[in-house]
Write a structure and sequence with these properties.
Length: 367
Amino acid sequence: MLRQGLRRKPALGGWPQGIRLFEILIMTETMKTIIEKIDINADFASHPAVLKAAEVLRSGELVAFPTETVYGLGGNALLADSARRIYAAKGRPSDNPLIVHVAELAQVSEFAELNERAVRVLERFAPGPITVVLPKKPCIPKEVTGGLETVAVRIPSHPVAQAMLKAAAIPVAAPSANISGKPSPTDGAHVAHDLNGRIAMIIDCGASGVGLESTVLDLTVEPAVILRPGAVTLEDLQEILPDVVLGGTKTLSGAEAPKAPGMKYRHYAPSGKVEIYDEAELIAAYQAAADPEIVILGSSSVLEACQPKYGFELAFDACDVVTAANRLFAGLRYCDEIGAKRIMAQSFAAEGLGVAYMNRLNKAAVE
Ligand code: AMP
Ligand code: MG
């Protein structure tokens, strides 16, 4: 049950923090974006759109592409200018580092200092939704890493991402393909909404996989620290690194020094105010508020109980965190589409994938 809301103009958001004037000037320039839809059953390795995307990336221009987590906005990770284009297209603060993507483990040592722990983690979980932070080699410009001496590395498993990275044969820097601060894109249509006219090309392959961004694991420290929770969970990583810890996942205020640079920024936030409740609390709070303009992001059971005017079905029930993770960002985007002012969103148990779900939902609720 997905209720359609009133078609109102979404409220205008402010500029994301930290954008400089020259970035705004670049952002206002528009270009013709090639949008290529690829059927998920196609032969990707020889697909003209995949080969075109690889060529565009090698030339230094930007391509948005599907991954098994969310859509990425790729640029040539060996070129400072491509990194600048990424920050400008997203309106992303340039001290928030980018993740560098390659097709296979053998390529990682070309641009990062691999260590024994990294090899064990990547052999177990890559290709897949894991990112490891390692010391960088000089070929990666500081523009890619937000000035850091470390680089975040990921090997995505999505077959289109794999085919494109293989054909490009370069490391590709790629943050999520959304306007900075807004929910990450989990569908090609979300990417086009945010970036059409700002980048050279979009590969639209429908829905992405997990729906939340990769787990970020810092392997430059001992013990290893999870900087951002994702689909590779604490429990999964403990199998390989028994002393790994979950650290620093709260949103910091401007003055605090972040361990993971992206953490000081507000993320994933729709324009409306997000309140978080468990299933029973949400039903009680909605009924007590008696305001039909409130939007509910909740499981089918909550929507059945509340019968709201505006609701987005996140999951079947309170145990179904896999579907909730997959649909959370689409739900947050739905809120902006209908101009929601007050949003009641359902919490899920913070264990396994629920840790990542709650991490994103809590950031969406930061004011
Ligand atoms: P996104 O590209 O939007 O998925 O965000 C990538 C996140 O990865 C950033 O917000 C950082 O928190 C993290 N990250 C990337 N590179 C590094 C690095 N060198 N050190 C620590 N964290 C990093
Ligand atoms: Mg992002």
